[in-house]
Amino acid sequence: MLTSRPGPSTGGTDAPAPDADGYGAPRRLWRALDRNRPPGVDAADRSWRSPLRGPWLTAVYGSVLLVALPLVIVTGLLDYAAYGPRFDQAFPSNVGWLRLPTFDWPTRPSWLFRVTQGLHVTLGIVLIPVVLGKLWSVIPKLFNWPPARSLAQVLERLTLLLLVGGILFQIATGLLNIQYAYLFGFDFYTAHYFGAWIFTGAFVAHVVLKLPRLITALRSRPLGAELRTPRAATRPEPPDPDKLVAARPGPATVSRRGAVGLVGGGALLLAALTVGQSLDGPLRRTALLLPRGRQPGPGPNGFPVNRTIAAAGVRPEQTGPGWRLMLRGSGRTVTLDRPGLLAMAQHTAALPISCVEGWSTRQTWTGVRLRDLAALVGVADPAAARVSSLERAGLFRTAVLAPNQVLDPDSLLALRVNGVDLSPDHGYPARVIVPALPGVHCTKWVAEIDFQGRADD
Ligand SMILES: Nc1nc2c(c(=O)[nH]1)N[C@H]1C(S)=C(S)[C@@H](COP(=O)(O)O)O[C@H]1N2
Ligand SMILES: [Mo]
Questions:
Q1: R_g of the chain, CA atoms, integer Å
Q2: Cβ 46 vs Cβ 247: under 8 Å
């Protein structure tokens, strides 16, 4: 149906009004496309018949994402910053001009990384039904013909491609990563980092383009009234310029309340199956979706293990009585055995281990303060400390700590946990634990710490 609206006066020329038929330049192209409709598009157009689709429902799902996705984006970028990009140990390490301003990741509050990482993974999972609901609500637009009516619309559609492709890619890679399923033939960190920027760019463009429409749509029907409308009284919205409303709507099989409830219920269910991995106590047992979510076994060492001693290739004889800790700094080397470390001043702190794969747990650690170890080799004012493990291969066999992370009074080379010796899987004879430090940098089976003084650089 092509009804021409009277366009603004163009001074008596016979040029058609700019919006006479909804086409921008090059009009001939769009018209030709419209005349040559590929087989099936009209049938596809008619087969989307749900009377629920329309600007209001799309805007309801959209407004949830508008509020929540920025949190996922920001916490994700903060996690990257927490890895200490200035020591070249964030992944991917070379991000070119996408480099973020670096700052020293604080050690306080000690649960900071637990919260940023927990929010990123948990919200990322919980929002999946909302993303799917939103995509369902706009899916007929995929079959619109002609695919665009102006060059501006071509650009808009390209951002949609990056938006939808981007979020599906981020969800897929993120989910596979927290399941430790590296099915993809590329590096997870690189893919997820660059994917994040592509998605974020498209998200910002989409919000700028669609925010006015979202507001109008939300205002078009009061939420409360809509959520009280039963299925029998559910009517399609009036036809909209975006053609979200079906051309020939069928009868409603659920109400809008049902559609919102289904998505909300799915999100709640995922939340219930996920949050347990970031909480201690009985709720932990509800983390059914996550491989390391639940408590592995009883006893003081009964909390998640990310990489076992066997998987790390550390042999039991390396951690026996022959084990030595090598400390280096200001040209000095000091070697200590475990009894020597236990004879030093011991400090106890309750600190979380927070894994980038999403789980976290707070335990009570006892050991020697890192700053006391630095002082042993005469480094009172460290610029950095490189910790190395007995582990020979593996991405996390070494980590660099920043000055605030060495000097915090709760930063420990832990020897014991919850009143007993560390288990082999938790890093016996000694492991690093530092407030708010990402789990990946809490090196287990420590062999050496190299303290760099300020004067050294
Ligand atoms: N040497 C070494 N230390 C390591 C790792 C590793 O692979 N090798 N994994 C790290 C990761 S990713 C996490 S989350 C924590 C988990 O500590 P846990 O296994 O004691 O819970 O250990 C860290 N320490
Ligand atoms: Mo981890």
A1: 29
A2: yes
**Cα–Cα dist 281/50, whole Å:** 44
3-state secondary structure 190-210: HHHHHHHHHHHHHHHHHHHHH
Least confident of 247-261, 277-291, 311-325, 423-437: 277-291
Distance (Å, rounded) from C-alpha 347 to C-alpha 302?
21
* Cα–Cα dist 135/138, whole Å: 5
Which 3 state secondary structure label does DSSP give 441?
helix
- Among residues 66, 74, 100, the alpha carbon closest in space to that of 208 is found at 66
State the pairing for strand pair 446-453/398-401. unpaired
In short, whether 353's Cβ falls inside 6 Å of ligand 1 is yes
The whole-number pLDDT of residue 307 equals 93
Cα–Cα distance measured from residue 205 to residue 374, given in angstroms and rounded to the nearest whole number: 50
Residue ranges of the domains in the chain? 27-276, 309-456
* CB-ligand 1 contact for 134 (6 Å cutoff): no
Topology of domain 309-456 in CATH is Sulfite Oxidase; Chain A, domain 2 (3.90.420)
Interval 219-270: pLDDT, tens: 999 999 999 999 999 999 999 988 899 989 999 999 999 999 999 999 999 9
Whole-number pLDDT of residue 121: 96
Q: What pLDDT shows up at residue 11?
A: 39
Atom of ligand 1 nearest to the CA of 359: 14
What spacing in Å lies between the alpha carbon of 357 and ligand 2's midpoint?
A: 6
Q: Retrieve residue 349's tokens.
A: 């702190």
CA angle 251, 253, 257 (to 5 degrees): 115
Q: Find the distance separating the first CA and the last CA of the chain, reported in whole Å.
A: 74
Question: Can you tell me the distance from the alpha carbon of 316 to that of 285, in angstroms, rounded to the nearest whole number?
Answer: 31
Give the per-residue pLDDT at 241. 87
Residue type, 357: E
Instruction: Look over the chain and give the mean of its residue pLDDT values, rounded to a whole number.
Output: 92
Q: How does pLDDT run across 367-417, given as a tens digit for each residue?
A: 999 999 999 999 999 999 999 999 999 889 999 999 999 999 999 999 999
Q: Where are the alpha helices (DSSP H) in 387-447?
A: 403-407
Ligand 1 pocket check: which of 180, 292, 444 to mutate, most ligand atoms within 8 Å of Cβ? 444
Does 52 sit in the ligand 1 pocket, CB within 6 Å?
A: no
Point out the ligand nearest to the CA of residue 362. Answer: 1
Measured from the Cβ of residue 444, the count of other Cβ atoms closer than 10 Å reads 27
Closest atom, ligand 1, to C-alpha of 394: 7
What is the value of pTM for the model shown?
Answer: 0.92
